[in-house]
User: Fold this.
Amino acid sequence: MKHHLEREQIVRRPLGEVFAFFADAANLERLTPPRLRFKILTPLPIEMKSGALIDYELRLFAVPFRWRTLIETFEPMRRFSDVQLRGPYRTWHHVHEFEAVPGGTRMRDRVEYEIPLGPLGEVARALFVTRQVESIFDYRRQVIEQMG
Assistant:
């Protein structure tokens, strides 16, 4: 069963600056809650483009995971998307969209994901996975707001 998360935020910075920040994989660690112990394994800098592969390591509920994503689409100053090739989810597809608006940049995230393990996975999702995913994006919103 597919699940969705959508978030939108206005960043009081110009489109070029916001897009460049999010297109730099090195900033992912800064935007991820410390409790996940997120670490990029792919040597930096990573050239962001369609077809780029990025490997990470993180912990979910104290269990270490390796995660590999593929940058599926990359449209400078507009959008990019990544899909999980290996990781804790059955599927994960994340679209990042950017749009210049008065006073800054509208940033929109759309995530579609599936949990593995069939009915057991759905129980886990209902009990804690949904809250975990939402808390990651809540943390990210706070960090972005603090950056001004």
In short: The longest helix spans residues 118-147. Residues 2-147 form a domain with the Alpha-D-Glucose-1,6-Bisphosphate; Chain A, domain 4 fold (CATH 3.30.530.20).
